[in-house]
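Next comes the chain:
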Amino acid sequence: MRKVSLSESLQVIRQGSLNWFTGRPVVVSFEVTDSCNCFCRHCDHGGPRDESQQLKPAQYSEYMRALKPCVVQISGGEPMLRDDVVEIVRNIKQSNGLPYIILVSNWALMTEEKYVALHEAGVTQFSVSLDFPDRRHDDFRRYPGLFDHLSDLIPRCAKHGFDDIVMNTCIHSENVGEINRAADKAKEWGVNIAYSAYSARRTGCQELFLTRPVDLDTLRKEFDGIRQRQDSTHTIVTPDSTLNQTQEYFEQGSAPGCRAGHRFLVVTASGKLQPCSMQFKQYELHEQKRMVEEFTEHNRCDECYVAIRSNLDKTFPQILGENVARYFSFDSGNGKNGSC
């Protein structure tokens, strides 16, 4: 994974440190649409939704000024359904290089031209869903032809040399034995891979949650393989500490201590603040402090270990150390010589 430049690295670290100690969110997830072109079995989105109240691209600048996150996730639904997604990125990206922008997408609507345009507009990292390393991906997402589309497009985009594509495999009971094969596929395509954990809170489907001893044993063996790869390849960007906590989350069936609404939060498509994508109490833009007082300080939810949370459930020195190792550059050059 390409490291960002020295100047951008220092800006991210500075803003992240300031937010951490002043109570502002470090990461904000802008859900720019509720609509999606897939009907994934592990997700509560799917199909068209009412888009009449969606924020306009220029309105995102106001949210950036108020919340000042150092990392932004652009998600949905499926953000590529927004014809103005490039303009949204331009209104989020600031002249000082902030924030670090992650575009989360299934890539069904991505083209090589759109990829380049989004990169030039300011996307730092493209997070692309990969449930299975073969055409079972189509069945799980209920989108025929998607895997073949990814197989053709991702290697072509990778050849641009931006080194900013990260496949994301959400681990559940049906793909737990495919963790290392997914890494093989990412390496074949010339991109990186990260792992996240399924939560039944989103859909209520307990069947996909890892509870059977055989599944938990498979998870341990697959993660052992991933850890061995981390010593010899830069393909896998999930740190060992997150693998350990993900394993513990599935073994215990919970992950207490969530700081949703404080360390991270969601901005809905209509502009409301939510603690996370699975907690639906909403607040106005100026009410983040009230969100922390009313929700975060009393939150007892322990039902997820999603990617945003897994990166912020650690001590500040640990977060800083891991991200310097993976993403930040202290080379005064263009930041493209280092890789993670």
